Hints:
The structure is a homodimer. Helix content of chain A is 42%, strand content 23%. Chain A is built from eight helices and eleven strands. In chain A, β10 (208-211) and β11 (214-217) form a beta hairpin. Chain A starts with a helix and ends with a helix. The interface between A and B is large, with 39 and 39 residues. Chain A binds a DNA duplex through α7.
Amino acid sequence: xxxxxxxxxxxxxxxxxxxxxxxxxxxxxxxxxxxxxxxxxxxxxxxxxxxxxxxxxxxxxxxxxxxxxxxxxxxxxxxxxxxxxxxxxxxxxxxxxxxxxxxxxxxxxxxxxxxxxxxxxxxxxxxxxxxxxxxxxxxxxxxxxxxxxxxxxxxxxxxxxxxxxxxxxxxxxxxxxxxxxxxxxxxxxxxxxxxxxxxxxxxxxxxxxxxxxxxxxxxxxxxxxxxxxxx
Amino acid sequence: xxxxxxxxxxxxxxxxxxxxxxxxxxxxxxxxxxxxxxxxxxxxxxxxxxxxxxxxxxxxxxxxxxxxxxxxxxxxxxxxxxxxxxxxxxxxxxxxxxxxxxxxxxxxxxxxxxxxxxxxxxxxxxxxxxxxxxxxxxxxxxxxxxxxxxxxxxxxxxxxxxxxxxxxxxxxxxxxxxxxxxxxxxxxxxxxxxxxxxxxxxxxxxxxxxxxxxxxxxxxxxxxxxxxxxx
DNA sequence: AATGTTTTGTAGCTTTGGCAACAAAGCCAT
DNA sequence: ATGGCTTTGTTGCCAAAGCTACAAAACATT
Lengths: 231, 231
């Protein structure tokens, strides 16, 4: 296991060099645990004292509804972390439980030591703090953007905004979704057939054409207008 | 102007005592500006170097759509701030412009000095950093919860979740919304008449009754079930 | 009390999009 | 190629919710 390579997948450590990563185990109280599949590494309601980072394996997040039903609310892959929001918010308890989906290795870093500067004023400590801040701020940006899709009421508006955003991000008329139809429908919070139907109309109107994951934008003007005027 | 009282309305300084607030002007490079109504204190696209806090007056946030149209995307009252997300996220430029709605006083605090520990390792500096982290993390919590409402598709589900959340928060069967119907409809992202219609049905079904801002929950069980099973 | 203003309730009509069910096409393996 | 499996396209029906417009009530102000 190359901990250096693995950790750099994580936003908190993306710009750390190997020697800095080594220091994590000193003043940040970093420690590594190996668990087997099915292990519950975070239990909703329990206090959060550490950020956990998946170094090997994967996990699933669950929330428990009042009626007892467990609802999958996200997957964690290598480099993903848990507790990085709950550890600073509200009453500092886990909102969701994290269950390992396979045998996994988890690196923990103590939250109080991230926040409190140690006496040495180490630069890597400083860096971690800044990264934590950007990580949270970036997250807000992402969620805010996702919420925009949800607020648009018309099917055409949702689809247009998604395609237009991808167009802006990828900078070409031929965009790749990185979604299949099901996932796209789920992301936009609509039913797949209804979405499909509207995509056909947009094709008939000469705005787009598509084949599977690949969307060709024929009328960028129109798409932009639809995306921006969408209510 | 009592800067101590005013600043304590802000989440970053809520737990500061007066002597600590005074130190803001030392190592945090705090400074206060007075502006007149209409002044643009933040321009979308410009780099963010400071967090701004409204001490007197109020402001409106606008985003400019590609077609040039300005869209109101939020109001700022005394104690509210701007730049506290953009200052740490992405390319650190303002997403929106902030225009003062009346003659106002604004306190600025330099972001780099919030993040970098000064040599003195002052405790208030430390506190500010922790507050910034909780502020961002709390925000994520709030947005995440708002998004839940948007994801629920049925009218009854949205209304039920809103009322149930208020019930949990207020701990009584007689809840107060803090919304008028228009605002409530806007928050749930639905049309007011449709919402009204469904509220009537829920009344007919003996789940709730209401008069203006005051909602009485007659069947908590049922409401909970509706709120939690809502898709 | 009278008047204007805002908020809330009501009704009818229309559109949208959900849903179920099925068809067609792609994609793998054997 | 053959048969399973997944993804995508297609259809029709129907319920849900949007919208306009208006009525009624509540509230405020003179």
